[in-house]
Each structure stands twice: as structure tokens, then as C-alpha cells.
Amino acid sequence: MWFKKKVKAKPEEKLKLPDGLWTKCETCGEILYRKELEKNLWICPKCNFHFRINCHNYISLLLDNATLDEQDKNLESLDPLGFPNYKKKLKAAKEKTNMNEGVVYGFAKIDGIPIVFAAMDFAFIGGSMGSVIGEKIARAIRAAQKKEIPLIILSASGGARMQEGILSLMQMAKTSAELAILAQKRIPYISILTHPTTAGVMASYASLGDIIITEPGALLGFTGARVAEQTIGEKFPPGLQRSESLLAHGMVDLVVSRKDLRNTLIKIMNIICKREKLPAK
Amino acid sequence: MNGIWLDFERPIVELKKKIEELKGLKGVEDEIERLETQVEKLEKRIYSNLSRWQRVQLARHPRRPYSLDILNIITEDFIEMHGDRRFGDDPAIVAGITKLDKYSVAIVAQQKGRDTKAKIKRNFGMPHPEGYRKAIRIMEMAAKFNIPIITLVDTPGAYPGVGAEERGQSEAIATNLFKCAILPVPIIVLIIGEGGSGGALAIAVGDRILMLENAIYSVISPEGCASILWRDASKNKEAAEALKITAQDLSKFNIIDEVVPEPIGGAHMDFELTAKNIKKALLRNLKELLKIPVDELVSLRIKKFQNMGVYKE
Description:
The structure holds 2 protein chains of 2 kinds. Chain A is an alpha/beta fold. Chain A has a single domain (53-273), classed as 2-enoyl-CoA Hydratase, Chain A, domain 1. Chain A has 10 helices and 11 strands. In chain A, strands 3, 5, 6, 7, 8, 9, 10 and 11 form an 8-stranded mixed beta sheet that branches. In chain A, helix 6 (165-184) links the parallel strand 7 and strand 8. In chain A, helix 5 packs parallel to helix 6 (165-184). The longest helix of chain A has 20 residues, at 165-184. The N and C termini of chain A lie far apart (99 Å). Chain B is of the alpha/beta class. Chain B is built from 14 helices and 9 strands. In chain B, helix 1 packs antiparallel against helix 2 and helix 10 (222-229) crosses helix 11 (236-243). The longest helix of chain B has 20 residues, at 271-290. Chain B starts with 9 loop residues before the first helix and ends with a strand. Classes of the chains: A alpha/beta, B alpha/beta.
């Protein structure tokens, strides 16, 4: 045929917004201009929903000079159980996130005060904790023990990593044991909970902070709502597992907007770390 | 005969039935004897080649001995303590002090119920936060008086309900892991049935971790894993295989220290023999642990958990 066939856009293509320009709020449905949203630290200006950001964003947001002296970057997961599709899953997560695993840790400063900082990344297999995350968190805690400097862990995780079976479960015990030693040395540990932090991570180091801070509206809890409904037929009322509910039930210290997170940390660190010495006897 | 048979036990049951039928007749002694050796062989073959899912079925067997069944046989004068001094008393966890032979010990155990009424009372062995808080209260008391601790683990998992969330299920479990890591007395953990994830681990941090031969211990139930992985809870058999949750698996991963043998056919076939094996294993481990100075004991315990995990550096 000599004439060109007219190509009609499919209806769904017409509706699709140009990638990267606009984003829809998960909670209130508002269509937001991406650049504005970024300037607002990925907080919905309409409903205050805190969009998930990655661990590198938190490094820039919270640490002096946006700098983390990262340690043990090369630790990589194996497939000790020979679990179906796990290797493939790991490979895809590495490509997607450009990380070796779902947590980074290292040395940093907040308002000039040296700390050990660890941040999880939900984008890496739901921030699920297997042997590597457990080991890196344990090493972060050990680094704080050794250097006798405060520890901050920012959590974002669906829980223990099913694909590493019992080895994942044991990471809960491993990290909690290291925190017990840290506490004996009377070194402060601040736990920051972001959306979502649940199950095995919530039931270990995330809940063990001397001070626990959460972002507004974060989903935090032991059991997922779907699992509760399927196993015991109980329906969770809306908001049960949100930061504000945990605050009301006495489970966390502070709900802090992402915009105020660094300032809050600076204030706390200055009070705890720069204090008058008490008389020895 | 216990009256409840699992699907894979059918060939044994049928053969046994045949023997029973023949027993009323005369002149068939040779035939009976022949069949009895056959049963023995069959039992040996079936029970020594159990699949992971078959072990799950044994671990959850309705006639399986529960914590109090075992404690009633192996201890004298068990004094049960109640309550977490914060909210309430959780019957899914039984805690107290007793004597194991000449040794004073504290007991913390998860308890399932046998009949419907007991099942409800014990909440199917699924503890609430107050249960875990009672557990750590008794363990701290034991540490205060230099009394070693024995825990018996048997739970499908920590209770996943609204009240449990509101009262801090996560915090209760985390706090137990945190505190048990450095308690200055020997802690022996024995998984007798189901070791259901964080709900089991909350009373399973210790110096020695033992498992009954047909017990299971897993990060997630086979059903939960199947429903996440294949969106189909009926693929529980495949999930059990993939998760590697038997005592034999965990022994290979160096997660547990010892497998305590069960009678042929499972612990429910003979409570007395099961309890005898358990008592023997507990006493042997206790004697060994009591020789280790407390500081060394705690650092060995921490090292034990530090070493758990497989990764590439």
C-alpha cells in the first residue's frame, strides 16, 4: 500500500503521564509535579504522605556533607538453601538498585558528632533481612561498640528473608545480642523507623532503640494485615499499624516529619553527647 | 494404637488391621509372625525416610506430647508462676521453677491445648506480648538467683491479633532476644513441636539449642511461604521442602546442637520414652554448661549467634 496506516494511540498510553514529570500520591491520589515533590523531600504537600525514598536520599538528608564513609560494601548474599528463584531475585535486585544488598552502613557525622550510621533500602527485595543484612547491621553495632560512638539505624523492611530460611530468623538474635553489648557499654542507639518496617526487623533491632523516631504515616508492626485476616480472621482497624497509633500506644518516642528529621537528630545528639560530666564519686 | 493416623501411615495401619483380624483364628500363628516382621520392616522404612512435610504433620500431630505432658513426667514439684506484672497472664506460656533431678531450674514453655476448650484457653499456643513479658520476668528472676533456664518451644507463631499489635508484640519479642543474649545463667532451649518464627525465637536464645527428631523450626510456616511465593497456600508441601525446616536440616546448618530421638512413629507413640530421652539430653547438657564460668558462657552464647549466617565477603 502506498499510504501509511494511521497509528492510533492505545487508550492506556494516552492516560500515561510522561515518565518522571508527574507522580500520583499513593494516599490522597493528588497528581503532583515531580520537581516540586522532590523539593518538598518527597512529602505530599496535600496530605503529608511521606513517599518512600532510598538509602542514598537519607544519607544526603541526614548526614553532615551528605557523606557516609561506607564499610563492608562488598558483602553479598549466597543461596544456602538452594531456594527456588532466589539467585534470579538477587540478581534483579542488584541491577535495579545498583547495590549489593539492602543496607548500607559506615562512619558519618551529625553536627560534627561522629556516629555509625546504617540505612536499609526497601527497594532491595522489600528490605528483607537475610544473612548479609544481619551481618552488616551486627558489624555496624560492633563498630559503634569499638569506637564508642553513637549508633543510628534507619529501618525499612518487610521482615526476615524467607529465601534464607532459618538463617534469616537467626539474624534477629544476632543483631539483638550485639545491641545488648552496646547497651552494656552505655552507648546511645537511635532507631529511625520508615515506611514500612515490619515483622522480623521490627521484632528485633528496630524496636530496641534507646530513642525510637518514626516518620509520619509509616506502616509499622509485627504482622501484616492480610496475614492476620487469613490466619485468625481478625480485621485490623485502619490506622492500627501507623506511626501515630504506635505513638498513642507508647511504642515510639517521636513522630517527626522528614523535613525536621536532621534537626531533631542534631538536638538529641547534642543533649546526649555534649553533656557536663557527672562527678565520678 | 493411637487412633489418629496420617495419610502416609496407611500401609502400616492396614497391615496391623489384618493381624488383628487373624488373631481370633486358629492355626495362623506363622502367618501372624510373618506379617509382624513385615510391619516392623515397613515402619522402619516409612519412618526413616520421612519427607519434610511428613515431619511437619508429626510435629503438629493432635496427640503429640505438649510441654506440660513432658514436664509432668520429668520434673517434680513444678511451681507455676503467673503474669507479667504489666497487663495480664498469658496461658499460652507456662513459666515457673522446679527440680530436674537434683538441679533447680526455671522453666519457660509454650503450651498448646488438647481439646477445644483447652485449645481456646491456650490460644492454640500463640503467645501475646504479656506471655513473652512473663517469660522474661521469670528468666530474669532465675538469673538473679543463679538458676539455669530450660525453655520448651512449641508454637505456630506469636499471636497476630489487634491486641497483640497494640501492646507491642514486636517490642516484647525484641526485648527477649536482647535480654536473653546476656543473661548470666545457662539457658537450654528444646524445640518439642513447632518452632514458629519470631514467636518461637523469643524464648529460643540460649547456650544449647536442641530439637526433637520430628520437630520443625522455621522463619515462616509452609502455608505462609506458599501463599506469598506461589499465591497458593495448598503448596505447603513444596514450601516445606524449600524452607528446610527439620531438625536434620537445622543440624546441617549448624543452627542446633543436638537432635533428641523420638520413639518410632513419633513422640506421641510413647510419652514416657520421649520424656526419658528429653530428660537425659537436658541433664547431660546442663551438667556440661554448669562447668563453664558465667562470663565465658555469655561470650560463647554471643559468639554462637554471631556465627550464624552464610554470605560472601
